[in-house]
RNA sequence: GUCCCCAUCGUCUAGCCUGGCCCAGGACACCUGCCUUUCACGCAGGCGACAGGGGUUCAAAUCCCCUUGGGGACGCCA
């Protein structure tokens, strides 16, 4: 076990979205790759917006993706005492001060700054007031007024920010609760986090947090900021672009491995390789090959990756996933599904499609629905004659194998001097109820079995 | 507005750090053909990019500068 410790720190104010899932994946991979620890922390200091339901949903999504974490799940809401200890320490060492400015006053300062074409900041008017605690007062960090703060981003390289760009951020709200920046620093330090991998939207927070680390006299971890995921219009991915949460992809019938593969490959590369097993991901992952520009989420490619996984799986492995999408009360034994699935694998994009393509297999001959238009068009008198004759010959075929069925059909065709076209559609329609279905004719028959095949063909003959 | 970040095919990307092997490679998508009993799979091929402009250099996708474009952040949210 190395000393690498990474973390993922979602705030339970919504479902786990694909952007968050990807950063979680990167952090997890970095830890696993280095034989280190990956810890999970729930950032619920905003007690108004955080809910246990979302925490549970996030955890479910993590588990679905196969991202496991080490040690106890941590809740920031249970550590307020700890945060307050350090805020007090900052107060005592002169790195923080009490402030009684009202929200209105601060807003006015910001507006004024904007008008003067400066960055909107708190102007530090309470810095030297030396007021103590009191009703409606907050604790602010006393940021340095000169110099600069820099760090070497694992993804973006060196980043330097002038200290004058940062204002005196609030550490403790007037209701006594700690704010994000303070809590994050205390947590990452006390949890022994060595590399912080997080979303790009936190780059601006990093110098502020570094300032807190320094004020507390703590070692500073390495930081890496993962670029955003964009929608097709190159805007930050949002609900109007469609599915956002990991859960939705589960509901659409994607395989978790495929989602993981696609997400990791979005923004990270290992030469030309596209498909990675979990083991390969862990073996190859590195921060050097994380891209530093935002990437557009491409559903088409996700679909392709998902197809690759479906094709690569043993049929039996797909049964449980597919069952979730089978209609209520559908009767299908594992044995039957295992025979059907190979026909679906080269054709289906996801579990849902697999289930949809299976419909005609799961009803008995007398309940099979026939597509009316196709019946009218395909079941001509000649076609029905062929069907009846074929039915008799199949019935007489004691072998009922792919080869024997082929012999039956081609033999009949040769006798009558017909092309396959003459029987292709009629037979398919007879046994599937539609002219388009997955699988070759003989494969279809073999999957259904002789009795069912004959029953369907006989019923079809009575239709027109 | 201010600050930070980013910029290779439509999209994901390799290459960039350690210039020449790159008139730029792979994948998705798209198009064409082959295979074929539907639909697919598969196979073969095609289309298609170094944002623009200056430098540095014998040589630049690779290094430097500017412009343009895009994104993010500026909260008693995280």
Question: How does this model look, in words?
Answer:
This protein has 464 residues and is mainly α. Helix content is 46%, strand content 11%. The protein has 19 helices and twelve strands. The strands form five sheets. The protein has a three-stranded parallel sheet, covered by helices on one side. A hairpin with a 3-residue loop joins β6 and β7. α11 crosses α12 and α12 (334-344) packs antiparallel against α18 (441-448). The chain is elongated, with a radius of gyration of 32 Å. The protein starts with a strand and ends with a helix. The mean pLDDT is 93. The protein binds one RNA strand of 78 nucleotides through α4, β7, α5, β12 and α10.
Topology of this structure?
Blueprint: E1 5-8, H1 18-33, E2 37-42, H2 52-65, E3 74-75, H3 80-92, E4 96-99, H4 103-115, E5 138-141, E6 148-153, E7 157-162, E8 170-172, H5 180-190, E9 195-199, H6 205-216, E10 222-226, E11 229-230, H7 246-252, H8 256-265, H9 278-284, E12 295-296, H10 299-312, H11 315-323, H12 334-344, H13 351-358, H14 372-378, H15 381-396, H16 402-416, H17 421-432, H18 441-448, H19 450-461
Parallel strand pairs: 1-2, 2-3, 9-10, 11-12
Antiparallel strand pairs: 4-5, 5-8, 6-7
Helix pairs in contact: 1-9, 5-6, 8-10, 11-12, 11-13, 12-18, 15-17, 15-19, 17-19
This protein binds one RNA strand of 78 nucleotides through helix 4, strand 7, helix 5, strand 12 and helix 10.
